[in-house]
Design brief:
- The protein is mostly helical.
- Helix content is 60%, strand content 0%.
- The chain has four helices and no strands.
- The radius of gyration is 15 Å and the shape is globular.
């Protein structure tokens, strides 16, 4: 039986719209592996929060500068991270 993803769930798994899929997955795996003890996963949650904050700031700056789309596509985000020498979060 194949379960279809809702449009919102599909959007959350789309590399071009969600820059923090890796961090989301890390948090989820940590919770699964630690019997949903949130205290054990605070580092993962912090990394996710910092990821969202970083890309939100990029999105706001692009909006101010009139750059479309507001959120860079996955390929462009990779180039931004490479220019920074890796993930700053």
């Amino acid at each position: 039986m194949v379960q279809k993803m809702s449009p919102n769930a599909r959007k959350l798994r789309d590399q071009d719209t969600n820059p923090c899929i890796e961090e989301t997955d890390g948090s989820r795996k940590c919770l699964d592996g630690n019997n949903y003890n949130r205290d054990m996963c605070s580092a993962y949650f912090l990394r996710y929060k910092n990821c969202r904050k970083f890309w939100h700031n990029i999105m706001i700056q692009r909006r101010r500068d009139g750059v479309k789309p507001d959120m860079p596509a996955a390929e462009e985000r990779q180039k931004i991270l490479e220019a920074l020498g890796g993930k700053p979060y």
